[in-house]
Structures are given as structure tokens and as C-alpha cells.
Amino acid sequence: MPGKLKVKIVAGRHLPVMDRASDLTDAFVEVKFGNTTFKTDVYLKSLNPQWNSEWFKFEVDDEDLQDEPLQITVLDHDTYSANDAIGKVYIDIDPLLYSEAATVISGWFPIYDTIHGIRGEINVIVKVDLFNDLNRFRQSSCGVKFFCTTSIPKCYRAVIIHGFVEELVVNEDPEYQWIDRIRTPRASNEARQRLISLMSGELQRKIGLKVLEMRGNAVVGYLQCFDLEGESGLVVRAIGTACTLDKLSSPAAFLPACNSPSKEMKEIPFNEDPNPNTHSSGPSTPLKNQTYSFSPSKSYSRQSSSSDTDLSLTPKTGMGSGSAGKEGGPFKALLRQQTQSALEQREFPFFTLTAFPPGFLVHVGGVVSARSVKLLDRIHNPDEPETRDAWWAEIRQEIKSHAKALGCHAVVGYSESTSICEEVCILSASGTAAVLNPRFLQDGTVEGCLEQRLEENLPVGCGFCHIPYDELNMPFPAHLTYCYNCRKQKVPDVLFTTIDLPTDAAVVGKGCLIQARLCRLKKKAQAEANATAISNLLPFMEYEVHTQLMNKLKLKGMNALFGLRIQITVGENMLMGLASATGVYLAALPTPGGIQIAGKTPNDGSYEQHISHMQKKINDTIAKNKELYEINPPEISEEVIGSPIPEPRQRSRLLRSQSESSDEVIELDLSHGKKDAFVLEIDDTDAMEDVHSLLTDVPPPSGFYSCNTEIMPGINNWTSEIQMFTSVRVIRLSSLNLTNQALNKNFNDLCENLLKSLYFKLRSMIPCCLCHVNFTVSLPEDELIQVTVTAVAITFDKNQALQTIKTHVEKSLQRASTDNEELLQFPLELCSDSLPPHPFPPAKEHLESASSNSGIPAAQRAVTVEKASPVAEGNFRNRSAPPCANSTVGVVKMTPLSFIPGAKITKYLGIINMFFIRETTSLREEGGVSGFLHAFIAEVFAMVRAHVAALGGNAVVSYIMKQCVFMENPNKNQAQCLINVSGDAVVFVRESDLEVISTQQPTANCQPLCTGGEVTT
Amino acid sequence: MTNELDIFVGNTTLIDEDVYRLWLDGYSVSDAVARRVRSGILEQTGATAAVLQSDTMDHYRTFHMLERLLHAPPKLLHQLIFQIPPSRQALLIERYYAFDEAFVREVLGKKLSKGTKKDLDDISTKTGITLKSCRRQFDNFKRVFKVVEEMRGSLVDNIQQHFLLSDRLSRDYAAIVFFANNRFETGKKKLQYLSFGDFAFCAELMIQNWTLGAVDSQVDDMDVDLDKEFLQDLKELKVLVADKDLLDLHKSLVCTALRGKLSVFSEMEANFKNLSRGLVNVAAKLIHNKDVRDLFVDLIEKFVEPCRSDHWPLNDVRLFLNQYSASVHSLDGFRHQTLWDRYMGTLRGCLLRLYHD
């Protein structure tokens, strides 16, 4: 499919003055695609030129269409000297290449210069005509849709979820080429921007080809990253989940979608075997135990074994590593084998999704992760991707085997990251081991549905908590109890995952953001010595981070973590670990025990007193937190549970010492019975510090909640006010001879103060929740720590929340929803695939709607609005959200979430993936580092919004700032910053606008969605 | 541990009205923080001083970046860098162009030049308004002046269109521009009792009746300059006091009509010729720029002060001025009725506004 690209340059405005004498500018425009360039006429003496050019036509291969960006350069004509560049606009034309997205790109784009920032705007129209030419050897993958969203996008349904796709391309970094010594910073920056644009185009095309090979038509959860390796090159790599998506368009298809979540639960296919003795697919790994199972000696052996390649120090520590030996556990269930065979065809049964269609996720094992330290200067062929490919393959293999050890055949919520300092690079991968329903993974496996629907009396909201591994052959010591919800299957006492809270999960109370922060000093060293030092530190960091998470979780009175993301950052002289997750109380899991402090010298009276004082403080905090997060699970007597809890009074002793040997680790038994306490031995100042730091985490001020997942469990009635923001802080560590404790305190204060500032700044939005709080840490220099936070604040209606809680006070088990759009899509698929148009008898439908009113309190309500259950609609009307006012510049919302509260996404316009460099040689004049970065981030937002608006969209969802690399040299008055952002451009329509339509057809609850699907703006 | 860099950028630009006011008032970051602390915000929110410092810095940076755009408000509406809801944009502009009464009284009628700018130090000391705020206000006056000075069409409309100000504020700026252009003296001790509102009221009347725009709406700087021809013609009014018969007749007409209606009738009768001479002479002198500048001083000296010393009630002043203007129509020997009305109509309005303690 070659195509014709057509570009028209309409006008410019707010151009900078380029001619001092006249205070005006003689501007013209160069339009470049590939190797072809067109020019407009010079528009003399104006800051608002009206070029109104002809249509510039480029006849190009679709391969180029995918790879190349359209480059528009605005220049000032100068008769006697060289023309001065005013700035550039790069337009990614990919969204024009598939039919359902944008058809034209038209609008005002900021003209960007890497030295001066935004300098005026230019109005451009871009169109593409594609010709059908199917005979050619296919190198392009036009038509494959890309989504950053890590769930099945609204207004689509997943026919098949094919699985993992990855690709990696390498190039020389222009900044490190010899020519960089003689060219201007501007030329160098532009070369870099252009190269990365080209590389990401190429990457996307290649991934698209893989998707086509798998017979998919889309990539969901597309995550593209840059590794600035320095001398050895510039790597652009991406992972994603290939899917076959169907656009939801037929209104009829929506009727069956109205079943309530409880219905969908019943689709959970297998292994909800009523007989608890057949652990058909015993699940669930409290990943925590995994942490302790790494053994340093093991990582050593790994090192040596792989050293023949070219020194790869690979201590793949991390959750789940040590248990690889037990992967051959007996798997009994037939369905499970089916699934496995479906998955085993794939090299890596990984999914970058974090939220799933109901029924997709069967069991969750726990977090699996692997890390590896590599030396970049040892790459034989730096320009070829082979070495990096091999590195990642190795890590993925590791992850895969960890998952197996947990009795799981797949990894969900999978992500990869790197941290680079000089020539050392840490590669990390993590995900959640899981057992999946095979139905989504291949064609024609829908027979299962009918039989599943017979199992009507199955409990809901706890299936995913049930352990996927064999109880008698557990990969690690864990404490199991019978599920507190269904009392039929075993569950672990704590569950850690990297995914969002499943829609149907039964949750008590609200959730909260939990962070573990850690610094470790490291000696400065070179090459191998450095890599070894880092490798040796990693296990301890993982262990510490995990302990902190566990302590904080218990302090909150909660028993599960979702959205766990552990970032290890390497610097010249230290390592930083930052883990963020959202803690919740899962009704299916046992009540967490408290934390008990034990002193080493119990004879000392005053010491004893101190201990008891601390103990009291901790107990008070737990009680306070339980109240704050409304955690009051129903009391269940032990008889009722009827499970023989092994040793109810068993104490777990967590020994803390730096000199931990692998033997000790194995002895660690972290099982906590229902009433068991978590014992902290404070035998040295180190541990004392830890206890203190536990208690210094201040809860958010009243009216504020925070989480790093999509939606906060326990909050349902979002209003339409959202505020996405990015906050960056850099601190300079003062003293040169820092200790680990001082470092930890500094880092902890940095994060806490940052959060406090956010709460203060957003106080006008109370009651509000910070969602998708995403912290990233980097160490730009020796004594600098940089923390970047991106999140969205969403207000909610407090009164309504209270009401809801009151009406459902008897039902303290609340089901939370992370993303109930899936609720729609999945059943839809069910029906269209296997069910008659009216699958449910009327009586039942009635029941369902009742349950959707009462049974899904909390977090779901707001999103339920989208489903337009009658009650939710009513609520919405009362709220009467004001329609967003139109100003001269259209408002473009940005959010890291996959949805917009109170609105329905009607169209996905394409992926936004932008990379900018900004440099200054007049740092002081631009307001110092803060002024410089503040302006740059504002400009980046502006450019994202402009591109979305030009595509015809009014929002970016799943927005993420993937990189923000900031370097300064105040002595030279210079600074440079690189920012990479991505997201999905969408069109949304306010719920209130859709209401009219939905009320016309009150029986069809899902009407708004279908209408929404067809609305195009 | 020091914060080397500390920023917050929202997709929708956060504007804190209180901090904006502090910024406009010209307080430094530390002063602003101190004032915010005193406002009790820490107790209300449970925040720390460090948080407040960081927040204030952020806002100040944002305002600093917005200031460039505020200099040409239409740019603020069309720019893409800051996403600000329209109501907030309006608030930003309106507040930025708002001025202090104390300040405007100091510079009203002065040439908006570098020389005046140098005096801002003194004005700042005198009024207690920070120098920074004085500069902003002065620069605003100057900027608006420069833009609309030579423009066609209604002054108020031009200001509104180019600076997107509210009707009220546009009118005020029209008065400031008009006074600056004609350099009316407003600073004399005698004039100290007058408010900016008084002058703005007079300016509006004068723009409506005495400028070129009053007769022809297609001239450059029509609302800014007084109609020279009109000023020239005003000499003709001199006959009203120069011709003794005319003056006597005028007096008797006014006295007859007002007999029994004024509480200060006798004082009026005694003073009629002085007052009339004063008013007519002011008109006759307006051809000289110097006398235009002293217009308000003259009006106060020649009319307001004599009346005030005789304790005329405002209502008597109104009755007198009405009758004084109207009676001229009955003077057969006087041919410049239209001219008289154009002059006296405006002057009567101004005098009534100026006549207070």
C-alpha cells in the first residue's frame, strides 16, 4: 500500500521577531518527508503570516509512512545571509494510516526550537491517500492499531488476546558522534529528536508486522522506552500485547452486556472445583516469601555460567527467583493443560495488560521479577541489537521460570525497565504470575462458556486470590488458610501483584498508596568491580524494600498490594530503591496480624518501657488507619471458617541483619496466622530507625486519598473534575560522608514532602483522590536525587459516597471495580459468540439490575455511570456536571488513567509518542533550573494537547511521562532536558450529553455506550 | 539537603487567587510566604512553611511566565502553553490591569514617560504601594496608552478589544489615557480632595462632547485629543461677560427664574458676575495648552471654591447651573447657542461632580 501524503501550510501566528530593525519576520516554511522537500513562498514582514500554500504531495511507500515523521521547519528569510530557523514541528502521521482513527490532521501546532522552546504556532493540514497494493512483499504494517492503555480499550472488545510482542532497535546516538564536536547544540538536538522519531516509527512498524504474523490487529499496553546508553548507542525498545480487537458498534450487541458483575463471575471457568482436595490449579503466591528465596550464592553461579558470553553479571534476584527448581509440579486440571498448551506455543506467555476482561484472570500467584546487571562497554557489536536482545531474552526466560515455579503459566501486568549510570546498566523485568482462562487466548474455544454458566452458585470476587500452586508441593513456605469468602479454596495470607485490582474483587474499605523507599551507598568503582558491587547490593535492596512494604501494609491493616512497581536506580555512589503500590484489604484473605516489637535485652527496665511505648504507638497507628480506611471486615469465627489453620499461634520472627546468609533466609518463616503478629526485633539502631520511619509516614490530610492504580477501591462517585500534573524535585545531598541512614532519611523526606506539597496544592479539589500516582527516581549526578511524579487528581462527591455506604452498610463486603468497561465487553463477546440474543430470562435480568444497584457500591459507581445503570444515571443528573466551556483554544484533558470520569470515550485516534529535547545556555535568565524545567514541561503538555486537538481529539488517556532526563551545569549557565511522553488520543463525550439518548430507551441499560461508539466529533 | 529544583506543572494551570494578589502587590516570595503564614493557612491546612514556600515559588514562576502574555491579553486567549479556563483567564487579565486608587491619583494627567517612571520611587514611599506594583501599574497605563493613542474608533471600545478588560475597567483606562494625553493637572493641593472617580467621570463627559470623535467618528486619535476647532470657537463665548448688557440681562434672567428657589439666593445674586466671568474665561482660555492643563484648577478656583465658601448646597448649585446654561438661549444678541451648549453641557456635569467636600 504505497500512499500519497498531502500537506498544506495555512498560516502562522505569534511568530518571534527575527528582524530587529523592523520588529517583524519574513517567514517561509520547509516541508520535508523522507528525502523530499517543498517550500512555501516567503511571507514578508509579518508575525502572523498567511501562506495558504498549495497541497504539497509526497508519493511514498507505506514503510516510509510508518517510519518517517513529517518535518515542518519555519524559517526567516534573509537575503544576504543564511536563513534563520525559527523552529520545527514533527508530526507523526501514523494515526492516519488506519481507518478507524483520524482521517485528517489539522490544527495549530506550536513551533518548537530546542534552544528557545515554543516560538509561535503554525496551522497545518495533513492527509494521506493509501492505495491498495497487496502483491508486494509486506514490510509495512499499516492498519495495526496501537494503544498505550493497559486494558482492552473502551469501545472495543477482545476477540483473542494473542500475547507478548517485543522489539528493539539500536542506533548510534548523534550526541556521541564525532560530528557533534563541530556542530551546534541545536543541530545535535534536532538530529537526536529526528533519529528517535524515526526509530520509534521503525519499531512500531516491526511490532506491527509481528502482530500481523500472529493474525492480530492491535497492540494493547504498548510501552516504548529509550535507553540512552551513551557511547554504546541509543536503544529504543517496546513491548506490548497483541490482540484481535473488534469495534463495538452494533447497538443490539449491547443488550446482553447488561448483566451484572455477579453474573460474569460465574464465567470463571475451571478450578472453582467445589472439592477442595483436588487442587486442580492451585494458585497464588504471596510473593513476599519469594523475596527471601534468592540466594547470593545462586546469583554467583549464574554469573559464572554466563560469563563466557561477555561478562554478564546476572544476579537475577527478586521475587520468585529461588524457586525455579520446583517448576515441575503436577498439574492436574484438564482445562489448565489446555491453557498451557495454548500458552506454551508462545515463547513468552507475558501480557502487558493490568486489567482484564472478566473471567480472563483465573488465579494470581504473586509478583515475579528479575534483574540483571550489564556492562555497556562490553557489547561486541554496539550497533546491532543482538546483544541487547539476548539480555532481555535471558531475563524473560527467568521470569517465565519464576512463574512456573508458582504454578502459573502466564505473567500479567508485565513491564520492563532499565537504569543506566555510565557503563553500568541494570535491566529489570517484573510481572504477576497468573493462571489465565484459555478462552481468550485462541480461536474457537468458546464451548467452555456454557458449562461454566451452570456453576451458578460459585462465590464471586475471590477466585483470583486462590493459590495456583499445589499446597503439598509449595514452592516456598507460605501460610495458607481457606478463603474467607468462599471457604472452599486455599488463599495466602498476603498477596502482592503488579496488576490493577480486578473488577470483581471483594474489598473492604478503601485503599491507599504504600511506598517503600531505600538508599544504599556504594563505592565508586569501574567496570566489573562496579557491576559486581551492584549485583551484591541488589538482593539486600530487594529484601529491604520488601520488608518495608510488608511492614507498612500491616501498619495500614491491609493484606494485599496492587500495582506494585519496584524501581531500582543506579548512581555513581549509591543505589536507590522505590516501590509503590496500592494497599487494599481483600475480603478473601485473612485479617493481617499486627506488628509486634521485641527487644533484645528484655531485662533493662527503661528499655522495656521504651519498647512498650513504641508498641503502643504502632498499635494506635494500626487502629487509626483501620478507621481512616474504613477497614471493618465482618467478624468470622473460626468454626465458621471451618478450616484447620495449622498453627494458629505460631510466631514469625523476622531477623534483621545485614550479614544474612542464604541458610538463614531459608529459615525465615513469614507465615502469619489470623492473630499472629509480625515481630520486629529492634536490637540495633538500624532497626530502630526503620520502626521510626514506619511511623513517620503521615497519612494524607482528610479529604484526600491516593493510590497508584487506576481506581481507588471504596470510592465510586467521581465527578468530572480532573487535574493531571507532573511534579519534579531534585535535592542536593549536603554532606560528603553520608551514611545509609542519613541518606534514607533524606530520600524519605523528599518523597513525603513532595506528597505533602501535592496535597496542599490540590486542596481546592477536596474531596479528591490522587490516582495513578507514578514516582520515578533518578540520580543525575553524584549528590543529586531527582524524583518525578505524575498523577491525576479526581474529585468525588462525598455526600453521595456516604449515602452509598450507608445503604450498603449491612453489606460490608464491597466489590471494587478498576475498570468496569470490561464488564461490558466481555459478556458482549459471550453473547455474540455463543449465546442467543436474549440469554437471560427477564426475571433474572431484574435481579441483576438490582445487584448492580446495591451489590456494586463503592468504587464502581462512578464508572458504572458509563454503563448507565438507571440509578447511576439518576445520580449523574442530580450532579448536573457543567459542560466544559468552549474557549478559543479547545480544552484537551490529559490523564494517566484509561478513562475519563463522567464521560464516554467514543473513538481512539491513535497513539501519541513524543520525544523532546530542550537545552539552554542562559539558565539564569530563564529562571534557573526550576524556571527552565517548569517552562519545558508546560511546553511538552502544550505540544501533546496540540497534536491531540489536530487529530480531532479532546483528551489523552493512559498518558505517561516515560522519561525526564535532566542535566545541568550551573557554572556554565547551561542545562539540558529530555522528555518522552506517550498516551492514547481519544474523543470523549460527556455522560450528561449522552443521557438524553439513554433515557429514551430505559430498558437498554447500555445504550449510551453504543451511541457513544458511533458518535464522531 | 536543599531543594535544587522544585516544580509542579498541571495540565490545567493552577491559579491561586490569594497568591496572585500578593504577586500583583509586588511582594517578594519571602514576604508573600510570611503574609500567607499570617493569614492562618498553615493551621487550616496542616501544611508546613516549607510547603508554603514551594507552593508560592511555583505560583510566582507561573505568573512570571504568564506576565509576557498578559501584556497582550488576546495572546493569553490564543496561546497553547497554559491551559486556563476562560473565566480564569478573564480574572487574570482583570486583576493584572486593576490599579490602586492612591497610585492612579499620583500619576493621573502626568506624561507617561521615563521621567515619571523615575518618580515611582517617591510615589511608592508616599503611597505605601510596593515599587514593583507601582511599576506594573505604570507600565500598564503606558502600554494601553501606546496601543490606543493613535487608533480610530471609540477609545473605550479599542481598549476593551485590545486588552479584553471589563467595561468598567476599560472606561477607567480611557480616562487615564485621556488625562495623560491632555496632561490635565490633578496633583495640586486644591485638587487633592478629588477622587479618581471624579476625574474619570469628567473625562468621560469630555470625551463624549469635546473631542474630535464627538463630531466625526472616522478620525485618528479621535477620542484622545480635544477638538481644536471647538476650543478655538470657545473664544466667541467671551461676549457673554465682555458685553455688559448681555451680562446684566443674563443675570436678571437667572435671578428672576431662581428667586425663592435658592437658599443662597442673595449670595448667588452678589456673586453672579464673578462666577459667570470665571466660567466664560475658562472657556476662552482653552485654546492654550497650558490652560487646558489647568482646567480643573481653574474650575475649582473660579467656581467650586467661591460657592463652597458661601455654603451653597449641591442642589442649589444644580439649579443655578441649569438656569445659568438655559437662560443663554433667551439672550437675543447671542449667536453661539450650540457652542454654548457643547461647552456648558459638559462643564455643568463636571462641576456638579466636582462639587463636594
TrEMBL record, chain A:
<dbReference type="GO" id="GO:0001726">
    <property type="term" value="C:ruffle"/>
</dbReference>
<dbReference type="InterPro" id="IPR056430">
    <property type="entry name" value="C2CD5_YbjQ-like_dom"/>
</dbReference>
<feature type="compositionally biased region" description="Polar residues">
    <location>
        <begin position="274"/>
        <end position="289"/>
    </location>
</feature>
<keyword id="KW-1003">Cell membrane</keyword>
<keyword id="KW-0472">Membrane</keyword>
<comment type="function">
    <text>Required for insulin-stimulated glucose transport and glucose transporter SLC2A4/GLUT4 translocation from intracellular glucose storage vesicle (GSV) to the plasma membrane (PM) in adipocytes. Binds phospholipid membranes in a calcium-dependent manner and is necessary for the optimal membrane fusion between SLC2A4/GLUT4 GSV and the PM.</text>
</comment>
<feature type="region of interest" description="Disordered">
    <location>
        <begin position="265"/>
        <end position="330"/>
    </location>
</feature>
<keyword id="KW-0653">Protein transport</keyword>
<dbReference type="InterPro" id="IPR037785">
    <property type="entry name" value="C2_C2CD5"/>
</dbReference>
<keyword id="KW-0813">Transport</keyword>
<dbReference type="GO" id="GO:0030659">
    <property type="term" value="C:cytoplasmic vesicle membrane"/>
</dbReference>
<dbReference type="GO" id="GO:0031340">
    <property type="term" value="P:positive regulation of vesicle fusion"/>
</dbReference>
<dbReference type="Pfam" id="PF00168">
    <property type="entry name" value="C2"/>
</dbReference>
<keyword id="KW-0446">Lipid-binding</keyword>
<feature type="compositionally biased region" description="Low complexity">
    <location>
        <begin position="290"/>
        <end position="318"/>
    </location>
</feature>
<keyword id="KW-0968">Cytoplasmic vesicle</keyword>
<dbReference type="InterPro" id="IPR035892">
    <property type="entry name" value="C2_domain_sf"/>
</dbReference>
<dbReference type="Pfam" id="PF23028">
    <property type="entry name" value="YbjQ_3"/>
</dbReference>
<keyword id="KW-0966">Cell projection</keyword>
<keyword id="KW-0479">Metal-binding</keyword>
<feature type="compositionally biased region" description="Gly residues">
    <location>
        <begin position="319"/>
        <end position="328"/>
    </location>
</feature>
<dbReference type="InterPro" id="IPR056431">
    <property type="entry name" value="C2CD5_YbjQ-rel_dom"/>
</dbReference>
TrEMBL record, chain B:
<dbReference type="Pfam" id="PF05427">
    <property type="entry name" value="FIBP"/>
</dbReference>
<dbReference type="GO" id="GO:0017134">
    <property type="term" value="F:fibroblast growth factor binding"/>
</dbReference>
<dbReference type="InterPro" id="IPR008614">
    <property type="entry name" value="FIBP"/>
</dbReference>
<dbReference type="GO" id="GO:0070527">
    <property type="term" value="P:platelet aggregation"/>
</dbReference>
<protein>
    <submittedName>
        <fullName>Acidic fibroblast growth factor intracellular-binding protein isoform X3</fullName>
    </submittedName>
</protein>
<dbReference type="GO" id="GO:0005634">
    <property type="term" value="C:nucleus"/>
</dbReference>
